[in-house]
Amino acid sequence: MNLIILTETDFRGGNQYHLSDFRAEHIRSILKLGVDDTIEVGLLNGGKGIGRIINIDENRIIIQCDQFAAVEKITPTIDLICALPRPQILRKVLISSAMMGVRRLYLVRANRVEKSYFHSPLLERSRYQPYLTDGMMQGKLTRMPEVTVHDRFKVFFEDFLPGVIDNETLKIIPEPDTGRSLYHTFDKGAEHIVIAVGPEGGWVPFEIELMERLGFVRFTLGRWILRVEHAVTAVLAQLELLRGKQ
Amino acid sequence: MNLIILTETDFRGGNQYHLSDFRAEHIRSILKLGVDDTIEVGLLNGGKGIGRIINIDENRIIIQCDQFAAVEKITPTIDLICALPRPQILRKVLISSAMMGVRRLYLVRANRVEKSYFHSPLLERSRYQPYLTDGMMQGKLTRMPEVTVHDRFKVFFEDFLPGVIDNETLKIIPEPDTGRSLYHTFDKGAEHIVIAVGPEGGWVPFEIELMERLGFVRFTLGRWILRVEHAVTAVLAQLELLRGKQ
């Protein structure tokens, strides 16, 4: 936990925030901080600041933070479309997405996605949010990705997606054996990027064709084949690197 | 499992290989293949080929492969030094290393590594090898990384390492807030690369200084802070991308 995320619920007036959950436990047992120690804090979807611990007891820690920096804008914006993976993998995708600054996470149906995954309790906000928070606190980002679930492939790509992204968005599909790396695909840079990561076993040809008709381009992450959770980390890491190119 | 790795022990003459372990189970239950079906195979540390299933029963699958391609050379060579993480994370590092083509994995002592980790049973060859095999079968690589354990930091860096790498080797340390990305660090390319990934909490200043004296340079993976397992995937993905630059 490299950053403590503070929410409205924690706020008690006087620039003070009361913590009594896993964050308090972490500050007490792992960081072993005491009164007057300082710690990096960030407002949920807001700015970061330095908090000072002004009171600490068994049940509660009070942190005071008098000033927060302006919200950092993360550019390019990155939206991640992910064929809904099984819950075990979804947890990892949620953490990585939040840790590495994804703006929106679209969990979509695909031919090789098992229908039963859409009934997973993990798709409830209260269940998946802790994984996002975990990722944000690790990555030191304050913005929580927006997560939405879409159980119809065609409807999502043909009707929904065109309404929420602009025409200039770079739309990319990591696919093994495509030949072209992101180094060339991303040549002109982009303000907005949408990545479509397929299920284990990959997108089926029909799905690829439909996405390509909508302007998606395929590229290769590397000479190996990665699992979904590794592909997500790898593509976000490669895009981050290419910012340095501009 | 995208590639079935065959070993000498499987070989029975007449270009035939007998499988009766998790690979047979995978072919039977997940891939649901039968007699005369073909499957991609690779010799451990050797070439790849197309195998044909010539017999299948409850206990055993017999695969015949008459021809293997030449061994693929992976360039640049990548050696990974990793401050020994706790077993749960080590498993992930083993899988990613094998999946993404690491040649040698050095597990080393560092100030922020708990001594007890060096007594983990996972450091026995028979215990860690399955994770390497898992990674290779996922990544479709036949070469198994060499894993060695080094419980003295200074001895490893000052005495051991200089003896096994050449002078031209690019030596890099991913460190948050260093400013310079791999895009510029890797500017001249390299045939051999050594990466030194620190423990949770990072290398301590003494360790960084010692490595820098030996020619290591620091760089930043991105604007976030990653856990060890994500840092490994991210740096390997970024290096792979930069191959396209040459």
Overview of the molecule:
The structure is a homodimer of 246-residue chains. With 246 residues, chain A is an alpha/beta fold. A six-stranded parallel sheet of chain A has the order 8-7-6-10-9-11. Helix content of chain A is 32%, strand content 23%. In chain A, helix 2 (87-99) runs parallel beside helix 7 (228-243). Chain A starts with a strand and ends with a helix. In chain A, a hairpin with a 4-residue loop joins strand 4 and strand 5. The longest helix of chain A is centred in the last third of the chain and has 16 residues, at 228-243. Chain A is elongated, with a radius of gyration of 20 Å. The mean pLDDT of chain A is 94. Chain A binds chain B through residues 2, 74, 96, 99-101, 138-141, 181-184, 221-227, 230, 233-238, 240-245, and chain B through 2, 74, 96, 99-101, 138-141, 181-184, 221-227, 230, 233-238, 240-245.
